[in-house]
Each structure stands twice: as C-alpha cells, then as structure tokens.
Design a protein that fits this description.
The structure is a homodimer.
Chain A lengths: L9 H16 L6 H7 L4 H7 L4 H25 L4 H18 L9 H6 L6 H23 L4 H25 L3 H18 L2
Helix pairs in contact in A: 1-4, 4-5, 4-7, 5-8, 5-9, 7-8, 8-9
Chain A binds a DNA duplex through helix 3.
DNA sequence: AAGTTACTAGAACGAGCGCTCTATTCAGCG
DNA sequence: CGCTGAATAGAGCGCTCGTTCTAGTAACTT
C-alpha cells in the first residue's frame, strides 16, 4: 500500500493471492493448498497466520478486496465534477479492467457472496459490509452534487447494483458493451435529477 | 410444464433439483450425490440419463432455469402496457420471490456463470445464451412500446444488468429495497424515452 | 414365454479437500 | 553461547468428490 513498497510479507502475499483466486474461482472453488502454492508459502505458514483456516483467509482477502475497490471508486468519482460523468467514468474504468484481465477479474465479492448465501458465515457479513461501503461512497458524491439524502441513497443503491450486474453480464458475454451501456444509461438517469 | 402435470419423471426430477441446488450453492458447491439424493434418484440413474456427468446435468439444469425465468419475464411484462410500469413490476416480482425463499433463490445462472468464467466450458455458453434471451425479451417489449431498435437494445441490456445486480445486492443485504430502488429508477429512466 | 432394452441400485476407486501434527530453521537477546 | 518463540516445511488424517463398474429389476416386443 505504500508508494515505496517493500517486498510483501508472507502474510500479505497470502491475502493478495487469496483475494485474486476467490475473485476468479469463488470461495468453494479455491483451495487452501492452491493459495499457499501461488503465494509461495507453505500450508504451515497459512495456518500460522490464519488459525481460523480457510474461512479466516477468505475474510481477510475479501476485506482487502473490498477496500481496494473502494479506493478505485473514490478516485474515479473524484476525477469528474458532474455526477453523471463521474458514474459513467466508473463504468468505463470497470470495463477497462475487465478487458485487460481477459474478462476474468470481476467484482471481488459477488462470487463469494453468492456461494455462502444460505450459511450465515462471516464471509456473508464481509461482503455485505463491502457493498454498503461502496453505496456510501456513491451516495456521498451525489449528496455533494446537490442530491437530497433520500435521492442520493436510492440512486446510489441503483448505481452499485447496476454496475455489479453489468459487470457480470460483461464477463459472461466477454464484451465491454454491457458496462458501457449501463454507464450511459446511469448517466442519463442521474441527469434527470440535476437538470430538473 | 403441462397444466395436468403428471408426476415428474426421474429425469425431470434430476433437472429440477439440480437447477435449484445450483441456484443456491453454485456449480462447484453442488455435488452429484446430493442431486441424486434430493431427487430421490440413484447415482446410476443420474449417469444413465446424463452420460456427460456433472457438467451435462448442470447444462440441462441451467437451460431449464433460463427458460423458466424467461416465462416469468414474459408474463410479467405482458401484464402492463406502459414499459416503465412493466419493468418495475418485474423488479417487484423478483423481490417477492426472493423474500419468500428466504433470500436464497436468486438468479439461477449468475452463480454458475461466475464460477466457470476462466474455463470455456459448456456451462458458460448456456449462461450467456440465457442472458441474451432475457435481454431479447425486454428489448422486444420496449420496441413494441415505440422504442427505436438501438434504444431498445441498450436499455434492455441495462435493465437485465441492473435487475441482476440488484438481486445480488438484495440477497446479500436480505432486503427487498435494492430491487425496489432499481425498479423505481429503471422506470424513471424508461420514462425519459417515452415522454421525450 | 423369451429376449431385449430401459432403468435402478449402490459398492468401490483414485484424487483432492481442509486440517492437524511434528520437525526444522532462524533471528533476537540475556 | 544457549534459550525462546516466530515462522517454515510437508507428511498424513479422515472425508468427500466425480466417476466407473457390475448386478438386478421392470417393461415392452415378437
């Protein structure tokens, strides 16, 4: 996280690798041994740093991924004054990242969240927290642009949901178009508030 | 499928159970033995009807689930003349189903699609087909309401994506609100086309 | 009635899972 | 130097996975 980044510690490597693998393969589809292998750590090290086992690793990984996405969101929203343009920029940014990863690196928490829905595991909670945080960031931006509290909240919920869904659609169809379309339409929707 | 429904055959039971389990637990998280058990079939029967193994079962199940959702979509859209009201009714309908299932029965293909993204398995293809089919249904409705071809397509893509994402958000937060909000905002968005 | 096909039934296999356990290495410190 | 605790290393446990295989049963054909 520091600009003058030291070589990541074993613990950090485990978290980073776990985040990427869960993002791509889901929670169930990712094995502890695979995480250890790709992080150049051994099984012993993983259980040393995360006595809680696989679930504890996943919680740390998802928390990290959630924060990372928050930063991306904040940076992109800060880059544009007009809220319509800002939200559309987010969609474009997501589309870029998706294409560059070969349509593999989508939303970091969706896959894990869906797999653990029935259970009331800690993973569920972390995913819910991440989603709430992202909504809050968008709502904050809208409020700063003159939206009422209620409008900001409802539109922010819609924006996060739409981006989430458009990203999945984009991944499945291997095309930027769903995200581009969502960006344009969300911009149009937000425009109906600012120009009214 | 018939109104005078005969007791479902073994093959039908396998497909129905597999569809529900994959919807709730994902592809990786659902075992062939679990499917056989809950469908009151034996392993031998499963492999008799689906020599292709687990993937073949999943393909059949996802195809069925995709069609079932298509019917729900068509019925709900047919129930309202105004396109805004029609799309909002879809969101309400999804919210109802979600709540009634204890926030467990979400989109039938999202989970499986996300898990198999890297691989170019047949499952991917079925999910992509389902999504395209749903978009087509929404686009058809919009075109029937006077939308141009291009507008209809772009808005339909956005609608399906937004509903998809809102459903995931609703599941994670165990609340109808994300879907309700998405429904209201999508209606507002569509209104900007019909009243222009 | 005999033969053939469609279906049911479940034991068994190798592989991989999450996790535990013991052994070893290594840095810091009195 | 010897002690100590953190970190590394990986063999092995019990279990479940998807799949295969061999039998047994039911139903239709001729």
């Amino acid at each position: 996280m520091s600009l003058y980044s030291a070589p990541p510690s074993t613990r950090e490597r485990i978290v980073l690798v776990a985040a990427r693998l869960i993002q791509r393969q889901g929670y169930v589809g990712t094995g502890i041994k695979q995480i250890a292998g790709e992080a150049q750590a051994t099984l012993g090290s993983v259980y040393h740093f995360f006595p809680g086992g696989k679930e504890a690793v996943a919680v740390a990984a998802l928390r990290h991924a959630g924060k990372e996405f928050s930063w991306l969101l904040e940076d992109t929203l800060r880059g544009e004054d007009d809220p319509s343009a800002a939200v559309e920029a987010c969609a474009v940014e997501l589309a870029r990242g998706l294409r560059e990863s070969g349509w593999v690196d989508g939303c970091p928490v969706t896959a894990a969240a869906l797999e653990t829905l029935g259970t009331d595991s800690a993973i569920q909670q972390v995913c819910a927290e991440a989603l709430r945080g992202w909504e809050k960031i968008v709502a904050e931006k809208l409020r700063a642009c003159g939206f009422t509290d209620q409008d900001a909240r409802e539109v922010a919920t819609t924006v996060i949901g739409a981006l989430e869904g458009a990203e999945v659609t984009a991944q499945v169809s291997r095309s930027e178009e769903p995200l581009r379309a969502a960006g344009r339409q969300l911009a149009r929707l937000i425009g109906t508030y600012t120009q009214a």
